[in-house]
Amino acid sequence: MGKRSRARPPALEHGAVPWLLAGALATAAPHAGHLPPWLSLLAAGALLWRSWLWQRRRRLPPRWALGLLAIGSVAGIAWQFHSVFGRDAGVAMLVLLMALKPLEMHARRDALVIVMLGFFLLLTHYFYSQSIATGVWLLATMTLLTGTLIRLHGGTQPVATIAREAARLLLQALPFLLILYLLFPRVSGPLWGLPQDAHGALSGLSTQMSPGSISNLIQSGAVAFRSRFVDELPEKTELYWRGPVFDAYDGTTWRVSAQQSPRPAPVIEARGVTYTYTTILEAHNQRWLLALDLPTRLPPDASLAPTLEAVASVPVRVRSRFTFASSPDYRANRGEVPATLAEALRLPARINPRSRALAQQWQSLPPERIVEAALAMFREDDFHYTLQPPLLGRDAVDQFLFETRRGFCEHYASAFVFLMRAAGVPARVVAGYQGGEVNPVDGYLIVRQSDAHAWAEVWLAGVGWVRIDPTAAVAPSRIEQGIVAALPASEPLPAIVRLDADWLRDLRNRWEAANNGWNIWVLGYNPQRQRELLSRLGLQDPDWQSMTTSLAVLCSLLLLSVTLWTLRERRHPDPAQLAWGKYCGQLARRGICRAEWEGPLDFADRVAQARPALAALTSEAAGHYAELRYGRGGEGHLRLLRDCVRRLSRERRNEV
Amino acid sequence: MRPLAAARRWLFRLGRDERLPIVLGQRRIFIVPTGAGFLFAIALAVMLIGAINYNLSLGHALVFLLAGLGLVAMVHTFHNLFGLRLTPGRAEATFAGDLARFPLHLENARGSSRRALEFSFTGQPSLTVDAPARARVTVAVPYATERRGRLDPGRVTLVTRYPLGLFRAWSYPHPIWSCLVYPRPLRTPLPTASSGTPIDHRRGESGQEDFAGLRPRQASDPTRHIAWKAVARRSDEQELLVKQFAGGASDELWLDWSQTAVDLGTEYRLSVLAGWVLTADEQQLRYGLRLPAQRIAPAQGTAHRTRCLQALALHGET
């Protein structure tokens, strides 16, 4: 390169500024939903101010003023997030930078910084959403940012030309994306400890249950997990997906008991049909895997907790796939350890005296009859199933059983377990999901947060733990048909669950099947899936070396073909010459060859002598061609020349 | 240093281009990432680490798409120069201190345009042009002249960063090219005419109005000074007559090297002479030029002026 004169850095063209502002807006705007409102307003104001300065061709504000503004905003972010590091604060800082940098943009170099910032901001969108829509937005924004770079380096061009050029570049880049996506050796993160706020907004069941916690969850139509059964589906009434088991009660809240001593591994005897199925579990930041009651075979990195729920070794922080086998007909822990049974009988003292009194009347009955008595009470007395129960006070169970009698599954499960314990039957509350809906488009059973449920479990000597669902006694349709059927239309259920029109339901099913495919193939593409796919493609036992090798080979081949495709000489032959060539070719097949040096009119004369029949046509064609080549012939002559070619071939057919 | 220079010559195919047109093939185009390109690569690495750490599938997709975009941009930057045909044109002579412009005809035979082609001579200001599809354009590559004489501008550096600015492709076309640079003219009053009387500018200009008589025409007299009426009257005579004006305009003015100040150095003296030539030409005087090694007989007109300036430009050069 040698000595290159380093002149002033290239200045920023006035016409390039709107591209940069649009890029800043497109990359920063989707963050408005999770940024503090003052920051969104500040960013919007800064961009508007910059557009106004651009339109009026005003000078940019002085550096010190921007510096003050930046320091003030950073202080605001630090105050809001209690840090300037971490995920959300980092995103806020990037958005701030993106909004302020255009106000300090003089040279092309500053503009490049903005484009790079834009790429970074695009990445941060995926902290919050990785849906199909986000993917489409990624492509649109990438086109805009690529167009911005083209505008910066290529000068003024019509917007459509720039957009087409950007789209062409991205289209050529897509095959690289595909190869790299499939073959780049995947590492399962994280590489280092994630900040505290990394797994912020995840909904799902929690480690405790107080009145209202499940009815709150039910307001969400979000998907909790999807399952596909290898063969047939179990009965709807058997679809109990087991989550956390609560055996500690303090009068208001049920909790997962802290395990003091190691308990023996649970013993499950499966007695009937076994169902095999694969679950794609959404991230919920908890360890339980929501296997069907009760799992008999578990994926390798999972185990069965002493309270019979399947748990992973670490909290589920990304959408994950698990394969289970479950048997709805089982005998579990017939020989339960005394400590667990004692825990399942413990009640806080001096609360709910009326319920205790009721339970004590049953104490003399055998346990099965006690269960039956309690269920009969729920079934026969005036109990109501509702999402909006009245608030309960200190003696919550008493109030519920004898006064309000209106409640949701958590109230029924809680009251039932209280009665059982008071009557001397070991019992506990199990939370999870019940039911689900099959999407006919892809055959997956979708279980939503609105299918969240709580039920009870009692331990009977000789039988083990038996599931009792008091809600089923009150509202059988909840179990048989789902939450929508069990609740009146006035109850606040999410709209997505309560779709009446068939076509809407169909649309939702299609959309969710597309989402599921996206989840499996795009978002769920992890090291394990990569190995599976590559083995299926014939790459035996793929390790990172063989992957890198094939990656390099494929990328080189692709680059080579893009290069050849781009650099190939594109010949654009003159259409007149093409038509005349065709005409002469047809004559050549009849034995009259035009010499390379022979002009059209000379050739026509020769043809007239050799084949008088073709004289008129050839002279006409030669005339048009000569006019096109040497005269001022236009489209009309070209059309007539082509017409001559057609007439000649027709004449030939007539001859034959 | 010598083998290094030889290696550079070989690698970059330095040397004059004898064959025309100059076609930019793959052996003549070089390409490296720009600073922005390196920044882009670093940004991609950081983003990839972020995507792995937070397990962002779309983040992986974004990084891979950007990586593909970078590779494709490299091909397109190369493509922007590939196959371009260059034919040098003749450069007009200029005065020292002015910009010499070396015309280069670009032929883009391709169906797509080539954008942001930046031409410059080493250490000289650059000029950026676009070459539309299937078209010829001419770029006048500027060279800020400093010294008089025959100027060899050296090789042209043709650079492009289009489309994304991540790569810089360049080529060194080196046409056989030269341009005559006249001395920088220094405007001083004209020297005394050969008659010995100094010529005053204003008198010289107004002198054409002061008719002083007729004399036989010489070959170098401008035709508009011919006294056609007088010729018509004296139709028997073969000779043409020209009008003579007062003010010594008809006197032969010699611009003489020896008239310039001896102690000011050759270049300065040449500048003074160049200034005189221009002034005398503007006043439509007949003037001759006397240099130590050359003598140009008095005459008038553009061709004469050019001849004089050339002689000044090449003074002392063989």
Describe the structure.
- By secondary structure, chain A is an alpha+beta fold.
- Helix content of chain A is about 50%, strand content about 15%.
- Chain A folds into four domains: about 15-155, no CATH class; about 210-485, no CATH class; about 505-565, no CATH class; about 575-655, no CATH class.
- Chain A has a six-stranded antiparallel β-sheet with strand order 9-12-7-2-18-17, with no helix packed on it.
- In chain A, a hairpin with a 5-residue loop joins strand 10 and strand 11 (about 310).
- In chain A, helix 1 runs antiparallel to helix 2, helix 10 (about 355-360) packs across helix 13 and helix 20 packs parallel to helix 23 (about 635-655).
- The longest helix of chain A is centred in the N-terminal third of the chain and has 25 residues, at about 160-185.
- The model of chain A is unreliable at about 1-5 (pLDDT under 50).
- With about 325 residues, chain B is an alpha+beta fold.
- Chain B folds into two domains: about 1-180, no CATH class; about 200-210 and about 245-315, no CATH class.
- Helices cover about 30% and strands about 30% of the residues of chain B.
- Chain B is built from seven helices and 17 strands.
- In chain B, the strands form five sheets. Chain B has a five-stranded antiparallel β-sheet with strand order 2-11-10-6-7.
- In chain B, strand 6 (about 115-120) and strand 7 form a beta hairpin.
- The two termini of chain B are about 30 Å apart.
- The interface between A and B is large, with 67 and 59 residues.
